Fold:
Amino acid sequence: MHMQVPGEAEILALWERGLARHPIDRALLLYAWARPDLPSSSFPDLPLGAINRVLLRLRETCFGPRIIACIDCEHCGTRMEVALYTGQLLAATNEDETSSDFKVTPAEFEVSSLRFRVPCSRDLAAVSGEQDINAAAVKLLERCCLDRPEKIDAGFFANMLAEAEAAMEELDPAAEINLSLSCEDCGHSWLANFNIGTLLWDEIDVRARALLAEVHSLAQAYGWTEPEIFALSPQRRAAYLDMVGV
Ligand SMILES: [Zn+2]
Structure:
């Protein structure tokens, strides 16, 4: 799969479109940018892991393979910097290089003789208003049940949650990326969730605001328009910014 590096004007356009959106929609927006060859109407139904794998590659294309994540220890609060590599994260999701990221039919599995599919962005969005993590997980599972029995007791889906989550992880390992961390200060070990969609959006946000600041300084000093400023080579732009005193 060939992925293009977004130009500066494209970064700004992406940022502008994603600014007011929910993080789930931002991830889909970035995915759509990376896969212009695919029909975007199907993106909300794609397995979450398919989205995450493409976003990891897009991150590598835009900002390189090395990610420095700042994470606070869950126990003592000490901030630590963790170096991650997109290649390592992709390898940990058992990605087969030849496999397609575009799976029309989400993988299915069975628990207690009921069929389920792995979750997609539409499911995540549907449970995103739920405050309780466990209740959200049960709701998500209920949505993914393909042959829901007519009568169910309270706790029906909650009882099969652990087994279903294990099956989901096996079928779509990139859906949720967890980092195994250990604090050097207090020795506490835990699993931290790593969300590539959020990280990539934050980086695009920083880049877009830096670009706006550059355009602002040069437009103010020379009266140039945004396209004129973007058309300057990086060397010339840096030289002018230097003269303006930025
Ligand atoms: Zn600690």
